[in-house]
Specification:
Strand 13 and strand 14 form a beta hairpin. The N terminus is likely disordered. The chain has two helices and 21 strands. This is GH16 domain-containing protein.
């Protein structure tokens, strides 16, 4: 649950189409400097994957650091399964993409969820981005479930309640059927510094926008100089520095994190019968270490990967 979220009405955001602009920012230490076109940016300290795999069993998938979750636990419905078979790859709208699938029959035993993630935690200050296809309706079965479609970065689990080292950035948590006190499509961005799970009491900053985000969207998070700025399709939707609880804690990440995508059910309250199956797709993911990269520059960089036929790159730690 995201307590203390501020809310604005944005309606439907359309996908950005800028692929030639080159106005990024490069961070060196604590100084920000303007960059020119894409070709001038440093080639080291980057991670990119366009998910052009056949299956999760491909050696290249594991070689790029990805793992598929198959162990029990939160978040989501207690007793639900995290099934490795719920992560696959498919051709979607003419492009190969990662596919997450979750389904429920309204019972915990009949609920399966999906997640894949970077096993090594090596992402901290920099720019995070992904092109994601979100959905408002199930691919089969009745609609209405409180499903959450996500992209986030998260550090090690808490050592104790309110752990001040706990770091998590939720770039998107999309609830097409509401939940967490909402009754319609809602998209959240949340930055953490510790929490108590039961009863729920977080030190976080959280913002949300009402309105459908069905379709493809580019989601960006810039974590630079103590500030986390979130964008959807080039539009800034949130900016976080300290928690919204009492302003006593920085929500800028304090330890290195992993990259995660998952699809899970908040609860079973919205289920209306039968089995419903939902999907989320990921076209590509990108990270630039210690850079604040503009959304337009990100579009240019990922277009350059595609034009060069580069399916993946990992130069983190090479600078």
């Amino acid at each position: 649950m995201r307590s203390g979220a501020s809310r604005v009405r944005l309606g439907l955001l359309t996908a950005a189409a800028v692929v030639t602009a080159g106005g990024g920012l490069v961070v060196t230490g604590n100084a920000l400097a303007e960059t020119g076109p894409t070709t001038t940016a440093a080639a080291c300290g980057r991670f990119f994957d366009d998910f052009s795999y056949a299956t999760t069993g491909d050696a290249a998938f594991a070689g790029q650091g990805w793992r598929v979750r198959n162990y029990a636990g939160g978040p989501g419905v207690s007793g639900a399964a995290w099934s490795a078979s719920n992560v696959s790859f498919a051709d979607v709208d003419g492009q190969r993409a990662a596919q997450l699938r979750g389904s429920t029959d309204g019972t915990a035993a009949g609920t399966t969820q999906a997640e894949f993630y970077q096993a090594e935690k090596r992402f901290l200050e920099g720019t995070y981005a992904a092109r994601i296809k979100l959905s408002d309706t199930p691919v089969s079965g009745p609609d209405g479930d409180h499903v959450n479609q996500t992209f986030f970065a998260m550090g090690p689990v808490q050592r104790f309640d309110y752990d001040p080292l706990y770091s998590e950035l939720d770039f998107t948590e999309y609830l097409p059927n509401g939940g967490w006190g909402t009754d319609g499509p809602t998209n959240y961005q949340t930055s953490y510094n510790g929490f108590r799970a039961d009863p729920w009491d977080p030190y976080n900053a959280s913002d949300a926008q009402d309105g459908s985000l069905a379709g493809w969207h580019t989601v960006v998070g810039q974590a630079v100089d103590g500030r986390v700025t979130y964008f959807v399709d080039g539009v800034q939707v949130a900016e976080h520095t300290v928690d919204y609880k009492d302003g006593s804690r920085s929500v800028f990440p304090r330890v290195e994190m992993g990259l995660n995508f998952n699809l899970w059910f908040i609860d079973l309250a919205g289920h209306s019968g039968g089995r419903a199956t939902y999907q989320e797709h990921v076209d590509w993911v990108y990270y630039a270490d210690e850079e604040a990269v503009s959304p337009a520059e990100l579009e240019a960089r990922t277009a350059a990967y595609r034009a060069a036929g580069t399916a993946r790159e990992d130069t983190l730690g090479s600078c």
